[in-house]
Amino acid sequence: MYRQLMNEQELQTDQHLAAEKARYQQMALTLDRRSFGIQVKTADPKTALVVWRNSFDLVGALSLMPDDMPMLPQTREFPILTGGPDKLHILTGGLVMTRYGPVLIATRTDQLATLIDRFVNAAITALMLTIVLTLALGYLFSKAILRRLVQYNRLSRRIERGEYSTRFPVSWRQDEFDMLASKFNRVLDTLENNLAAVRGATDNIAHDLRTPLSHLRIGLEQLPDRSCEELPEACAILTEKLDHCLATFDAMLSLTRIEEGQQTLELQELSLKLLCEDLFEMAEAMAEMNQQTLSVTTGTDVKLTGDKYLLFQALFNLVDNAIKYAGEGAHIEIVQQGREIQIRDNGPGIPNEAKDRVFERLVRLDPSRHNQGTGLGLSLVKAILARHDARVKLMDNQPGLIVSITF
């Protein structure tokens, strides 16, 4: 604004002096010397201050003509003294060459300096007001931020005390604090779900291991009362119960190692088609024992890199589950097409609300608890497939269940 104001004032001064220059040059061409002098002498000082040096003296509004004045359009500032209240005036002007000699044309520009001073004073005042307003708004803004931080700190202490149901408030503003609060709330949701899963896993461990451990205790108490012929059979039963307990803990340790990436994968190139055919050969006899039919259908073969033992274990767990829970007379299919493998059965299936829960640790649906198992099979399947960048999905077969694995 300052530069624009200066440029505008300089442009107006130059245009005014140029117009006066043209006017006096024209008068010199059309008037005689005496008439020209009268025009210079009677010129309005509010329009321009004009001085002409005739043969004898100076004629015009000024009593002097400064030396080294340039020819218009070049200009130079020079001061003059007056008898008025403002004793010093600043003029800007230049010489015009006419046929009657040089004429000095000047105009006052000290009003411009006054205008600039007023502008600077106004700018300083505006700047100070802006600073004061900024400090006030900054103080209010910092108080609002501090108030929210104090609130977050108080809620954090509640979470530290174990109140995991606490959530950070999210306002309508959706600013950075609200984004952070939403993130923390999602973390707390995950934490609460994990704690619930841990509590559920503890309950399931207590439920699943209480029965075999009770049988072990009862069996051990009854051992002294048994005859020599009954001891081998009783010891075998107790060993079987103990093996089930140990298998549960071994499965939990294996699952943890796979999920945390602690178990190194023995990577090799393998064929999904051959993997499904090997799976069929291994499980066919089990299906026949349950009076079930097992079939395999393969399509376009796909080669991939993975741990053949772990992948076979995961797929066998799925087929084994189908054989266990599909019921007598069920038909079970292993279908491979490209990068997808499906294991289908026409058994009772799994309710929709339980399809996500069955992949959690030690979760066994109530109808399945009469069958011996650890409740970790599907958790192992999901962990192994995740290590191989594969997705597993449960779908309805109407009736029955379809387990779809996509690599």
TrEMBL record:
Superkingdom of the source species: Bacteria
Annotated transmembrane regions: 119-141
Entry keyword Phosphoprotein: yes
One of the Pfam families matching this protein, by short name: HATPase_c
HAMP domain mapped to chain residues: 143-196
Subcellular locations according to the entry: Membrane
Protein name: histidine kinase
Species annotation: Shewanella sediminis (strain HAW-EB3)
